[in-house]
Design a protein that fits this description.
By secondary structure, the protein is an alpha+beta fold. 29% of the residues lie in helices and 19% in strands. The radius of gyration is 26 Å and the shape is rod-shaped. The mean pLDDT is 82.
Length: 80
C-alpha cells in the first residue's frame, strides 16, 4: 500500500488574487491544501472539498410494506 503525503503550499494574498482560479483548480486536482498569507502571516487555508457521502443504504425502514399499503380503518375526512 502506498501512502501519499500532502504538504501545504503557501502563497501570498496578492499572488492568490492574481492566480485564484488556477490555484483553486490545482487544489481540487491534487488535494494539496493552500495557505494564503498576508505580510507573512497565515490568514486562510484553501482545501479540496470531500465527495459527499452517498445516501443509498443510509435509511432504515421500520414499517413493513404491508403496513404502508393497508387502508386506514376509522379515518373520516369530515372529522366525524
Amino acid at each position: 500500500m502506498m501512502t501519499m503525503v500532502m504538504t501545504e503550499m503557501t502563497i501570498s494574498a496578492s499572488r492568490f488574487k492574481a492566480e485564484c482560479l488556477a490555484l483553486l483548480d490545482h487544489v481540487g486536482r491534487t488535494g494539496v491544501p493552500l495557505v494564503v498569507t498576508k505580510h507573512g502571516k497565515p490568514v486562510a487555508r484553501v482545501v479540496a472539498v470531500e465527495a459527499p457521502t452517498p445516501l443509498v443504504g443510509s435509511i432504515e425502514f421500520h414499517v413493513s410494506d404491508e403496513e404502508l399499503m393497508s387502508p386506514l380503518e376509522s379515518w373520516n375526512a369530515d372529522g366525524e
